[in-house]
Design a protein that fits this description.
- The complex is a heterodimer.
- Chain A is globular and about 50 Å long.
- Chain A contains nine helices and nine strands.
- Chain A is of the alpha/beta class.
- Chain A has helices at about 50-55, 75-80, 95-100, 105, 120-125, 145-155, 175-190, 200-205, 240-260, and strands spanning about 5-15, 20-35, 35-40, 65-70, 80-85, 160-165, 195-200, 210-215, 220-225.
- The two termini of chain B are about 50 Å apart.
- Chain B is mainly α.
- Chain B has helices at about 40-70, 80-90, 90-125, 125-140, 150-155, 160-185, 190-195, 200-240, 245-255, 255-285.
- The longest helix of chain B has about 40 residues, at about 200-240.
- Classes of the chains: A alpha/beta, B mainly alpha.
C-alpha cells in the first residue's frame, strides 16, 4: 500500500479580517499519496491557497490536523521537506539565475537536506533550456523564463513534497501550455509529491493524478476526481477523448460545488 | 526524502527538436535571417556625455556675463573666474581646511548610517519599538539641529565631536526613514518562500531585507552626503579654528570676498565629488535594480 505523504483531517481555518471572522476552510479531509500529483481547483476565495499554506506549515489549523509524512508540517518545514512555488516567480533580483536556483539550499544549512549537487542543478537547468541564462539577472528574463527558474529552484531542493500556488497564472496561454509539460517532465524525473493549486481546468487535468474540487464560503472539498489518463503525458493527450471526458467531469463538479 | 541520482539531460516533452534545420527554432524554408544593424547614434551619445559640462559652463558663463553687464562690485557678487583663480592660487589653504570638513562630514555620515540602520532594523522587527521610537524621531526631525551645537560645545569642547555630531544629526533622519521603508517593504511571496525552508530571522534579514533596502539607502545617501557637509559646516560656524565653515566665517567677518566664495566653491566641489563617487558605487552595487536602466537614469 502506498504511504500517505500529506493528510488533512477535518481541518478548519478562520481568519480575522478587521472585526469579523472569515471562515476560510471547513472540515477539509484529503489524503495525498507519495509521489502523487493532486490539484486543488475552485473559484477565487475557496481556500485553495490556505490549504497549501496549512500543508506547508506556514499556517496553523484552528481545528483538525495536517500531517506530512506523519510529521507536523512545522517539523517538516524545519527539515526542509517542502519545495514551495509561489504565484509569482519571487526571484531575488540581485541573484543570477544560477544563484536563485541554489537559494533554498543556501538557507537553513543546519538541516541535512543539502538539495541537489551543483552538477545536478546545472544538468537540470540545461535540461530545461536555462543554460544560456545562468548568469543573467531575473530582470533580463521573460516572465516564462522567470517562472521556469522558480520551478527549477523548488526541484533543486530535492524536497519530497512540492507545494505550488497557481504558478502559471501570470503567464500567457502559449507559455502556460509549454510550462505544464516542462513541469511534468521535471516531476517525472524527481517523483516528488505535488499539491498544485490552479484555476485552470485543462491544467489540472493534464497534470494531475487526482483533482480535488473545492466549493466556496466556506471552502470545502466537494468532490475528488480520478483523472486516470496514462503517463507520461505529452501535448497530444489534449486531443484524446478521455481528456475531454475528464475535463467535462471536473467542469460539472465545479458547477455542482458552486450551486451547493 | 527523494533520492537524487544525478541528472542526465534529455529534451523536455512538449518541446520537440525541430526537424530539417540543425538549429532549433529555425524554419529551413527561410534559413537564418540577418539581424538589423544596431542603430548608431554617435551624436546623441556624445551630446549626453557632454550635457552636464554644458550645463555647468552655461551657468558660470551666464553668471560671469551678468556680473560684467551689471558692473557689480565683488562684494555684491564676484566673477566666478576670479574665485576659481583664487582657489587655484591657494591650494594649501583650501586642501587643509577642506580635509578637516571632509573628515567631520565623513564620520557624521557613517555614524548616521549605522545608527539609522540599527534603529530601523529594530523598528522593522517590532511594532512596539516602531511606535515607541517614532515620536522621538519626529521630535529630532522637528528640532532645528543648529541650536544643539552650543550644547555639544558644552559637552565636548573644541574637539571634532560637536561637528561630527551635528553632521550626524543632519543626516540621520533621511537614513532612518529610507532604511525603514526598505527593510519593511519586502515581497511577501519571497518572504513566504524563505519561511517555507525555515529560514531564520537573521537569514531573512541578511539575504532579503538588507539587499532589498539598498536602493532606498543609496537614495538617502545621495541626500545625506550634502546634509552631512552642511552639518559639519554649521558645527564649524559656531566654534572652530579650522575647516571650510570656519574659513567662511572668518572671511565674512573680515570682508575677504575671495575666501568666502572660495570656501563655497570648494564645499560645492566636495559635495559633487562625493555624490558622483556614491553614484559610481551605486551603479556597480545596484546593477540588478530597474533604476540602473540607462532609459531611467538622469545621472
Amino acid at each position: 500500500m502506498t504511504e500517505t505523504a500529506v493528510s488533512f483531517e477535518a481541518v478548519s481555518k478562520w481568519f480575522r479580517r478587521k472585526d469579523r471572522l472569515v471562515h476560510a476552510v471547513s472540515r477539509v479531509s484529503l489524503e495525498v499519496r507519495q509521489s502523487e500529483f493532486v490539484s486543488l481547483i475552485g473559484p477565487s476565495g475557496c481556500g485553495k491557497s490556505t490549504m497549501l499554506r496549512l500543508a506547508g506549515g506556514l499556517l496553523e489549523p484552528d481545528r483538525g490536523s495536517v500531517a506530512v509524512n506523519n510529521q507536523p508540517p512545522a517539523e517538516a518545514r524545519r527539515q526542509k521537506r517542502y519545495g514551495f512555488v509561489p504565484q509569482h516567480p519571487a526571484l531575488l533580483p540581485w541573484r543570477t539565475v544560477r544563484r536563485n536556483v541554489s537559494l533554498l539550499s543556501d538557507v537553513n544549512r543546519r538541516q541535512d537536506n543539502p538539495g541537489m549537487s551543483t552538477d545536478d542543478q546545472l544538468a537540470m537547468l540545461d535540461d530545461i533550456g536555462l543554460t544560456p541564462f545562468l548568469d543573467s539577472l531575473p530582470r533580463e528574463l521573460s516572465g516564462g523564463l522567470q517562472q521556469r527558474v522558480s520551478i527549477a529552484r523548488a526541484f533543486a531542493l530535492g524536497a519530497p513534497v512540492l507545494l505550488m500556488d497557481e504558478p502559471f497564472s501570470a503567464l500567457d496561454e502559449i507559455t502556460r501550455a509549454d510550462m505544464r509539460y516542462l513541469l511534468l517532465h521535471l516531476w517525472g524525473r524527481i517523483g516528488s509529491t505535488v499539491l498544485f493549486v490552479t484555476h485552470s481546468i485543462p491544467e489540472a487535468v493534464v497534470l494531475s493524478d487526482r483533482v480535488a474540487v473545492l466549493g466556496s464560503r466556506p471552502g470545502r472539498i466537494t468532490e475528488v476526481i480520478d483523472v486516470g489518463l496514462p503517463r507520461p503525458r505529452h501535448a497530444e493527450v489534449e486531443d484524446s477523448d478521455d481528456y475531454h471526458r475528464v475535463l467535462g467531469e471536473v467542469r460539472a463538479a465545479l458547477r455542482r460545488g458552486w450551486s451547493s | 526524502m527523494v533520492e537524487l541520482t544525478g541528472w542526465t539531460a534529455s529534451p523536455a516533452p512538449g518541446r520537440p527538436e525541430p526537424e530539417g534545420s540543425g538549429e532549433p527554432g529555425l524554419d529551413p524554408e527561410f534559413g537564418v535571417e540577418e539581424p538589423p544593424e544596431a542603430p548608431r547614434r554617435p551624436v546623441r551619445r556624445a551630446a549626453l556625455l557632454v550635457a552636464p559640462f554644458a550645463g555647468l559652463t552655461a551657468f558660470f558663463v551666464g553668471w560671469e556675463l551678468y556680473v560684467v553687464v551689471r558692473n557689480l562690485r565683488p562684494l555684491t557678487l564676484p566673477l566666478p573666474s576670479d574665485v576659481i583663480i583664487h582657489v587655484v592660487e591657494n591650494p594649501g589653504f583650501y586642501s587643509r581646511n577642506g580635509l578637516v570638513t571632509i573628515q567631520e562630514a565623513f564620520w557624521g555620515f557613517w555614524i548616521a548610517f549605522f545608527a539609522a540602520l540599527f534603529v530601523a532594523t529594530w523598528m522593522a522587527h517590532s511594532q512596539f519599538v516602531e511606535r515607541a521610537t517614532m515620536p522621538v524621531i519626529v521630535l529630532m526631525q522637528s528640532t532645528p539641529v543648529a541650536v544643539l551645537v552650543p550644547i555639544f560645545l558644552l559637552w565636548f569642547g573644541f574637539s571634532p565631536w560637536p561637528k561630527i555630531l551635528t553632521a550626524m544629526l543632519f543626516a540621520w533622519v533621511p537614513f532612518v526613514a529610507n532604511a525603514l521603508i526598505g527593510l519593511r517593504s519586502i515581497d511577501s511571496e519571497t518572504h513566504e518562500l524563505l519561511r517555507s525552508v525555515n529560514a531564520s530571522r537573521w537569514e531573512i534579514y541578511w539575504r532579503l531585507r538588507i539587499p532589498h533596502s539598498l536602493p532606498y539607502l543609496f537614495a538617502a545617501g545621495r541626500i545625506c552626503v550634502g546634509l552631512a557637509l552642511v552639518g559639519a559646516v554649521v558645527g564649524e560656524f559656531f566654534n572652530s579654528r579650522e575647516g571650510l565653515g570656519n574659513a567662511a566665517r572668518v572671511a565674512q567677518s573680515r570682508l575677504l570676498v575671495d575666501q568666502l566664495w572660495g570656501s563655497v566653491f570648494v564645499l560645492a566641489f566636495i559635495g559633487v565629488a562625493f555624490v558622483l563617487l556614491l553614484i559610481a558605487v551605486e551603479r556597480r552595487v545596484l546593477r540588478w535594480h530597474s533604476s540602473q536602466d540607462s532609459d531611467h537614469r538622469a545621472l
